[in-house]
Amino acid sequence: MQTVKMVISGAVNAGKTEFIRSISEIEVVSTERRASDDTKLIKKETTVAMDFGRIAVADDLVLHLFGTPGQKRFDFMWEILSEGMLGLVVLVDSTRPETFRETNRIIEFFTSYRDTAYVIAANKQDRPNAWSPDELRLALRQPPHIKVLPCVASQRESVKNILLELLYVIMQRSED
Amino acid sequence: MALVGNIRDFGLSDFLYLVDRGYKTGCLHLRRGDEQAILYFEKGKLIYAARREGEQLGDMLIRQGKLTPEQLEQARQVQNGSTNGMTLTQIILSENMMSQEDLQQTLQTHTEESVYGLFGWPDGEFRFEQGQKPDVNEPVMPVPLPVENLIMEGVRRIDEWGRIKDRIPSTDMIVRFLDQPGAKAKGVKLSPEEWRVFARINGKDTLADIAQKTNLSEFDVCRIVYGFVTAGLVDVVKKPRPAPLSSSPRGAQPMEMPRIKKSLVSRIINRIRGM
Predict the structure, then answer these.
(1) Across the interface, do B18 and A135 touch by the CB < 8 Å criterion?
(2) Residues A125, A164, A82, A153: what is their CA dihedral angle, to the nearest 10 degrees?
């Protein structure tokens, strides 16, 4: 069985959990939640908020979706998660410009070590006062060749579109 | 639909950059406590700014000694009788009450000073109403003002190291020109110090290197380069890591992702399409 990985990142509350939940074939596993029968066994230590989803492509191929922790103190997880990833979706809360700086930091991190295929998903486009993808491109100072796409993470078709656009970027870089 | 936020998180210079590159028309409303400001843009250029809403052109020009109250009354009578929606600016010029050059200079000075003061706000709510145009009585400049110089001057007035560090976290970063800085640079007026830094940008030297070569302090170089970055002239990037001995010929470039087969990607695409 071959597994491939995509990482879904973004600032806190950008919509990572919702994004993975909309497309995952399994209930999204979030490491912040604990099964009640494990409660006694769990030590009292800081937990990492991370989401995990899965799409079975075929009997021999599975796509895993990992949502990164958004909080700065868990930066160390990003390097671990980025190992062997196919590509990256950077989710942005289009209604909160106060998160744009953090978003840039995330993009900078993931692209500084590896030539990462990524797209930016301008989430919450259904909300009033959402900045449009074009406005986000300028605000994030992204070059023209980077895709900045409209997204509503609660809608499956919207999430599918984002993943497909990322896959098209990956396809351009792949070999025959 | 309005763009809203706080300039604590998304600075005024960043917003001016967005308006310029986005070729935007509309009105930026700013509020901080009891203070208010409005800035009107047309196709990415500034046409009017005031630190309080509703300031009348005529009152401002009388205050500046450029018009008499009688001239203002005459202009208003002409405006009331006009059927084609002429602005007060247009009437003042057509009635030869002021020359275009004098009116432009007066309004430009007033507008620039209104904007420069805003760069000192540490915070403030902003709301950008797309497409909103000024009233015919508002003092718009005959010639709209490009924003690059506003950004540069605004940055010159910023002392806060914190804001600079946000964009330039270390002096070990390399400065390089963006795609076509020549075109943008034509509109920008630089001080001699700024020229010294500008001339040293070669895509290889770090800010620390530039400070050493220009005999300027690292703070001053960072502040000047911050202005260039905000005006969209240059970019700052991390110094590439030294390549390990066994690395690929690309050396210090970011590591390439392992090559993946098209067939694999194709299978995933087909699966997701079918979901």
Answers:
(1) yes
(2) 30
